[in-house]
Amino acid sequence: MNSLYVATDLNDGGVCVRVWNLPKKKNIHKDLNLAFKGFPGLVNIEPAVSANKKTRDPICKGFAYLKLESVEAATR
Questions:
Q1: I need a labelling partner for 35 at 20 to 30 A (CA). Which of 18, 22, 48, 50 fits?
Q2: What does the alpha-carbon distance between residue 68 and residue 51 come to, in Å, rounded to a whole number?
Q3: Which residues, other chains included, contact 65 with Cβ-Cβ below 8 Å and sequence gap of 6+?
Q4: Residue 54 and residue 74: Cα distance in Å, rounded?
Q5: Exposed/middle/buried for residue 69 (C-beta within 10 Å: 0-12, 13-18, 19+)
Q6: What pLDDT sits at residue 38?
Q7: ∠ at Cα 6 (8, 47), nearest 5°?
Q8: Contacts of 20 (CB under 8 A, 6+ apart)
């Protein structure tokens, strides 16, 4: 998780942060929850996933969006 991109979400006042360079593996949501556990202001984690052609298991595409409640939480 080396890179971050921050963009404001004008619809509900929250902030969306894109995290990339994630491993392309199954169950990335569990790893992201563990990595960002206790992070102040974190509302939601949405990894980008696609189905594996053989097994149809969701595999991470290499990035995720973190929803934070404020710009201050995102800059931390």
A1: 50
A2: 27
A3: 16, 17, 18, 19, 45, 46, 47, 48
A4: 37
A5: middle
A6: 87
A7: 100
A8: 2, 3, 5, 62, 63, 64
> Does residue 64 have a pLDDT over 60?
yes
Give the residue from 50, 46, 49 showing the smallest Cα distance to 17. 46
The yes-or-no verdict on residue 5 having pLDDT over 60 is no
Q: Residue 33: which of 75, 66, 71 has the closest Cα?
A: 66
- What residues does 50 pair with on adjacent strands? 59
Q: 67: Cβ–Cβ under 8 A, 6 or more apart, which residues?
A: 9, 14, 15, 16, 17, 42, 43, 44, 45, 46
Question: Is the pLDDT assigned to residue 53 strictly greater than 80?
Answer: no
Helix (H) or strand (E) holding 51: strand 42-51
Maximum alpha-carbon separation in the chain = 43
